Amino acid sequence: LWRFIPLFGLMMMLLAGCGDKTISTLQPRGPVARDQLFLMKLSFGIMLLVVVVVFLIYLYVLVRFRKKKGDKDIVPKQVEGSHTLEIIWTVIPIILLLVLAVPTVQYTFKVLEDHRQNKDAIHVKVTAHAFWWQFEYPELGIATAQDLVIPTGKKIAFELTSADVKHSFWVPSLGGKMDTNPGLTNVYYLQADEVDTFKGKCAELCGASHSLMDFKVKSMDPAAFDQWVAKMKTPAVVPADAKAGEQVFKDNCLSCHAVNAQGLGAGPNLNGLASRELIAGILPHNDDSLKKWITNPQSVKPGTQMPAFGPTGAKLQDQQINDVIKYLDSLQLK
Ligand code: CUA
Q1: Which end is more exposed in the chain, N or C (fewer Cβ atoms within 10 Å of the end residue's Cβ)?
Q2: Residues with Cβ < 8 Å from 241, sequence gap 6 or more?
Q3: With a threshold of 0.90, does the pTM exceed it?
Q4: ipTM computed for the complex
Q5: Chain segment 1-10, per-residue pLDDT in tens
Q6: Ligand 1 contacts CB of residue 282 (under 6 A)
Q7: How far apart are CA 310 and CA 324, in angstroms?
Q8: Which CATH superfamily is domain 240-329 in?
Q9: Residue whose CA is at the smallest distance from ligand 1 atom 1
Q10: Is the peptide bond before 198 cis (omega within 30 degrees of 0)?
């Protein structure tokens, strides 16, 4: 038993790590996550029941049929080919599996049905790229990346696909996960109860920076969401001191990065970038992070398609990079 103490300690530590309520399946923050937690509890309950019953029988047999003093080597009663026993241990698992399967299948169809029925849902097209997320709002005429913004209390109907390899879209607090496959569109929906920022993850091993393929889901009350949409559609006014950087950006970055409301490209849309919390989905948003990302993106996200523009890429002078950063800092949502 003592050998297991470190193992128990490790398990406690792992469980203690589950306290972040912006990324916890066990603390659902929307109806989809709640339904899924119910299914998890149901399957866990069934497994627990099986374990307890099997162990009780096992303990009973250990005690009841132990070798007592004076016992000779007796061959116990042979039960091979017993139809009664075989029927019992076939029927019980079938019943348990049915108890689990019926609500699971019901739930799966409910998700698809909800997706079809909800005419007033907000549609978001998700395209996964190695190693970032593109979000389009076709009805609203906007597109963004890395920060998914949604209104609270409303169904968000997703259409998910991938631009390269298989990824998987997962927001533990709201529900998931759903694979994004190249050449195929999966549907799914999520809904958030309250205003918060949730963490999202790629949940399918997809390459060197799989574990860095994070995103955020910001839920806002519907009025704030409408304001955000309006701001996204308002073209940024470039201040005079950022004009030089704007030109450098046009010459070097615009071929991949759109900076208007709904442009798409090989890289993330950067409209309103200065109002996002993170750079490349993982670095804190400041000029140092921007510089690090522009000059040596491989040091941040190995395998990224973003080319290096610094000394290793030798494409831009230091001054030009500082100008671009000044320009990027001007991309505020107003
Ligand atoms: Cu994308 Cu893992």
Answers
A1: N
A2: 326
A3: no
A4: 0.98
A5: 677 778 877 7
A6: no
A7: 12
A8: Cupredoxins -  blue copper proteins (2.60.40.420)
A9: 167
A10: no
